[in-house]
Amino acid sequence: MSPASLHLYTDSSPNGFKITIALEELGLPYVLHHVRIDDGAHRHPDFLKLHPHGRIPVLVDAPRGITVFESAAILLYLAEQSGRLLPHASRARWDAITWLMFHSASVGPILGQRVHAEMFADAPHAPSIARYRRLSTEFFATLDQRLADRPWLAGEAYSIADIAGYGWMHIARLIGFDFSAYPNLSAWHLRMSQRPAVQRGVLLPEPATGP
Are the C-beta atoms of residues 195 and 163 closer than 8 Å to each other? Predict the structure, then answer.
């Protein structure tokens, strides 16, 4: 990856923070393009050429002519191209990929729906709120159990699985979705929060705020 060959199109969101954290961890040069969702920039025809569904983040590797969207795919691409943040040993590698997919299938979607139900829905719908609170406490418990005897989701190695998980857990803590009852998960969150690259990544393109 040559200097400034990577272009990241993103906004201040949990999915966007995953990629800014990864790029900061890897120390790769990149050009940051702020796609302001609140202003409708994700629906602009130029952006839709990059992601036809109009979502951030999008990574463009210009020299290779490769465009990647969906945060898990971008994390895998960066890990593959850099040879870092994904263990080489088969078991640990697949542990990292498995927990990356667990986040993509279970954690992110559920927290996203919970945010909508509790903070953005035109009218509160108690059954929906109860459902997403229950589902989120279930995966909090699953993650807490996973982290009971290992520092990172893939074991001893910090990986893209942890970066993916932190994107939404950072927002959960920011907006008051409490997971302090889960000591292993809380300790992991603190370890993540103390990493300089993580601290930089959650400020790009600008810090997130509550609704």
Answer: no
Tokens of 95: 């542990």
Locate 139 and state its tokens.
């995966």
Q: What is the mean pLDDT of each run of 10 residues along the chain (211 residues)?
A: 80 96 97 95 96 97 96 98 97 98 96 93 92 96 98 97 96 93 98 98 91 63
- Look at the pTM and tell me if it is higher than 0.90: yes
Q: How far apart are CA 82 and CA 93, in angstroms?
A: 15
Tell me the C-alpha distance between 12 and 37, whole Å. Answer: 9
**Contacts of residue 163, Cβ cutoff 8 Å, sequence gap at least 6:** 18, 21, 22, 25, 75, 85
| DSSP state, residue 37 | G
Q: Which residues, at least 6 apart from 134, have a Cβ–Cβ distance to it below 8 Å?
A: none
SS3 156: coil
Give the pLDDT confidence score for residue 162 in this predicted structure.
Answer: 98
Q: In the chain, which residue ranges form alpha helices assigned H by DSSP?
A: 14-26, 45-50, 71-82, 90-102, 108-115, 126-146, 160-174, 183-193, 196-201
Q: What is the rounded CA–CA span in Å between residue 191 and residue 193?
A: 5
Query: What does the pLDDT read at residue 6?
Result: 97
Per-residue exposure over 67-76, b if at least 16 CB sit within 10 Å of its own CB, e if not: ebbbbbebbb
